Amino acid sequence: xxxxxxxxxxxxxxxxxxxxxxxxxxxxxxxxxxxxxxxxxxxxxxxxxxxxxxxxxxxxxxxxxxxxxxxxxxxxxxxxxxxxxxxxxxxxxxxxxxxxxxxxxxxxxxxxxxxxxxxxxxxxxxxxxxxxxxxxxxxxxxxxxxxxxxxxxxxxxxxxxxxxxxxxxxxxxxxxxxxxxxxxxxxxxxxxxxxxxxxxxxxxxxxxxxxxxxxxxxxxxxxxxxxxxxxxxxxxxxxxxxxxxxxxxxxxxxxxxxxxxxxxxxxxxxxxxxxxxxxxxxxxxxxxxxxxxxxxxxxxxxxxxxxxxxxxxxxxxxxxxxxxxxxxxxxxxxxxxxxxxxxxxxxxxxxxxxxxxxxxxxxxxxxxxxxxxxxxxxxxxxxxxxxxxxxxxxxxxxxxxxxxxxxxxxxxxxxxxxxxxxxxxxxxxxxxxxxxxxxxxxxxxxxxxxxxxxxxxxxxxxxxxxxxxxxxxxxxxxxxxxxxxxxxxxxxxxxxxxxxxxxxxxxxxxxxxxxxxxxxxxxxxxxxxxxxxxxxxxxxxxxxxxxxxxxxxxxxxxxxxxxxxxxxxxxxxxxxxxxxxxxxxxxxxxxxxxxxxxxxxxxxxxxxxxxxxxxxxxxxxxxxxxxxxxxxxxxxxxxxxxxxxxxxxxxxxxxxxxxxxxxxxxxxxxxxxxxxxxxxxxxxxxxxxxxxxxxxxxxxxxxxxxxxxxxxxxxxxxxxxxxxxxxxxxxxxxxxxxxxxxxxxxxxxxxxxxxxxxxxxxxxxxxxxxxxxxxxxxxxxxxxxxxxxxxxxxxxxxxxxxxxxxxxxxxxxxxxxxxx
Length: 820
What we know:
There is one protein chain. By secondary structure, the chain is mainly α. Helix 18 runs antiparallel to helix 19.
């Protein structure tokens, strides 16, 4: 019903329009400006009420430019009030009117509104079309800030589609436009978005720097929404880097801003990130509450949005951890359907991975392989190394695959994890390797990977993971009989020639060993894993007067404490339940020969007294007997731990230590004797070429030897500079793996190296480079940039570099640069 007052107002407006059109247009523009101000201030309901009032007055020509502007503002208000479909209808009407006018700026605004609505509705194709049209219009009217804003929107589209490289390009282009206008505030927002993209590109160190820069500038401009977004991104990144205290502080600050400003979307993101933090800490119930909060808010914002796909996927992963597989399946399917509907490919791929894990629990091998394959295919296409590493790690731990398949998957995970900016994830892969090898009775390999993982977890104070490793080791000891750690006369081909070394310290050790090899004294060998302690122990035995007797190896770390005494000293029939016959102990097995106690630091304190007596008195008392009997054996022990420190801490008896520490040799790590690396590489190439290359040979002449492949000279330089944390054993494995991967080729190239060496080669080394090397690297980068800037035109690039074109061509050939 129209009141008399409103009829009077309408009559006045109509009279004004007919009698003085210019005055009417001026008045109408004032009203439109008022609506725009309300929208800018965030008073969307009030703005929509003013728009409705103007529409009801029926004083605007339905096809006038002013009607198009009013529809544009109405679309903006409806969109902000969470009514996207109504907003899109109004925006389309505005476009039909304004496209035939000269109001280019307003037309660009319409395109932008439509693009953002399509984005919310998950129609990425139409969103991108609208944003490209908007950018074109802004460029035409020379609105550089407008172009920057739209490029940021286009980056958002690429981000959702997991086209991270394109997203970075759009952000960098937007930053260039902002620099031209000196728009520091919007540059800070762009840096925040860039940091988020770099996080998903697994460039975590660079992401952290970018996000901190964004946060500093946003704080200067008091942009609370952008500050909040930067804090959330930093909290998430800190959680990935296992910096839990920093993550807690960032998220706490973000929550304070969210509460003050009622940032609903950011509140959902906060619950996702806080839930992920609690999940990483092992607080599953707290994590579940946060994920459920994120789901509820996501449903409120939009049931087909990015919040929903991620929140349901996180909830599904947590439900798997809690054993709630039915709920996990429902959550995962919700995440998958949502991510597919909005084109969010990264979340879609992770959902496939989660389904693979779920189906492995339910015994559906075909579905396991199908979903994992889909996940890896998509993640490989995106180049998402972190999520891909996690996927291959999950595949390597899945019982639906065989041993060799799981080994292959874990090897791929190892390569990917070694390229990340955090050692924690590589340690997780090594722990999975240890478990796999324990399960398949490969104890030596299992212990090696277990040691690698433990070193990292101890350094990072990852208590939960250390506890899991200890449980794994105890379980392995209970299921694997200690006899597997005994090697009797496995080889007699050991001599001092087995040591390929020029190192003075190592040569001195070998000379001292020559002098004491026949003496009946204990020898303690120390050194990091892979330095050659086992080899030296065998050399001592097989070059001594005891060489024709047994060399008995006891891996002390593999013996469960409950069986330690009976396995070492033997037992009498009836000594305990299950002792159905007399059994000789390992010390008896070593009579006349050598007893090699590897990982001596792992001997339980309860056994150390009896072991001391056996070594000192050369007497053995089997379990169940009281009368000792004389034995004769030589004792060699080895450890990669600091026994002096262990004695001070009470973890090792001092009297046993002093008894073992008669002759003590500490083998240096490979990084301290780099001159040995070429010798060792040559030795391993020759050694394994016979096995590896010989198997690939099709030559019928059985007496011919396979050709030993050569190394790219730069690889040898890389080998000589690398620190080799696994020492000689790691170098040996690297050469062997490269030979296998070369498939019989005559030359081993960089492409065949493992991930850790590839990362080192790409600039992660802590070793200093020569001045010439640094200058060459700088020169190469300058030439590459000039060629890129000139689109490969050498004459133009030479002018940019201020050098002769002939010189440039020589440099291109020198550095093997390829440009059209």
